[in-house]
Amino acid sequence: MKTIPEIQKMKDEGKKIVALTCYDFQTAGILDSAGIDIILVGDSLGMVVLGYENTLPVTIDEILHHTKAVRRGIKNALLVADMPFLSYKVDIKDSVYNAGRLIKEGGASCIKVEGGKEIVDTIKAMIDTDIPVMGHIGLTPQAIHKIGGYKVQRDEKVIGDAKALEEAGCFSIVLECIPVSLAKRITEAIKIPTIGIGSGPYCDGQILVINDMIGLTEKLPKFVRKYLNMKEEIEKTIRMFINDVQKGDFPKKEEGYE
Ligand code: KIV
């Protein structure tokens, strides 16, 4: 089982950290046996699995349900569970309790929170309760209404946020949609690993939403590389099945029982 010290060691030794999101048991098993370092049950769950318009409606119980499924599929990767909107930031005790549920009931090894300097007290309280925390700065989708859209985040304040999260005890930080040179400066300014998404090649690791990179998502941001056209493959397969059933070719006698 991959540990947090091993993830830190990867940065120390200059080895890239590879992460993907995942939401179900079978896919988790595939990612794990392929050798992924970190699996995140992201609140992107809301958009790519549950069909919500954004991540805001996702609940702690929905994340918990999917974290349990993913846990059952993993033998090696480090499992991170995302804290959804309103499950933290409102009250520190509730935040720690909700984070604890993802560890205790969900089987995650650590949790992820969005935000900078303003949430260091919450992060410290989680870490004091032995809950390891991954930070997330830059474009933070839970603040979509405040930010006004899914935009590149150019404000240099993220450097201060990254340092504050490191100081608070985060073991790594996701950098989302931060310009390449700014993400490089953050990565060089802190000792803990940065995991980039849309933040260029100089981060210590990379993460993508699995549904995006395997081609299940229709409209993709520029930073996603589509490794497979899964939607097309599935559609082709379903059409073959429909055709086979309609023309009486499936099932054949030998595909049944005597
Ligand atoms: O919810 C999510 O999938 C995430 C990743 C994009 C980092 O937060």
Secondary structure elements and pairings:
Layout: H1 4-12, E1 17-21, H2 25-34, E2 38-41, H3 45-48, H4 60-73, E3 78-82, H5 92-104, E4 110-112, H6 120-128, E5 133-138, H7 144-147, H8 157-168, E6 172-176, H9 180-189, E7 194-197, E8 205-208, H10 210-213, H11 230-246
Parallel strand pairs: 1-2, 1-8, 2-3, 3-4, 4-5, 5-6, 6-7, 7-8
The protein binds 3-methyl-2-oxobutanoic acid.
- Could you say which small molecules are bound to this protein? 3-methyl-2-oxobutanoic acid
- State the strand order across the main sheet: 1-2-3-4-5-6-7-8
Number of separate strands: 8
Order of helices and strands: HEHEHHEHEHEHHEHEEHH
Protein model, in words:
- The chain is an alpha/beta fold and 258 residues long.
- Helices cover 41% and strands 14% of the residues.
- An eight-stranded parallel beta barrel has the order 1-2-3-4-5-6-7-8, surrounded by seven helices.
- α9 links the parallel β6 and β7.
- α5 packs across α6 (120-128).
- The chain starts with a helix and ends in a 12-residue tail after the last helix.
- 3-methyl-2-oxobutanoic acid binds at residues 21, 40, 42-44, 82, 136, 174, 197, 207, 209.
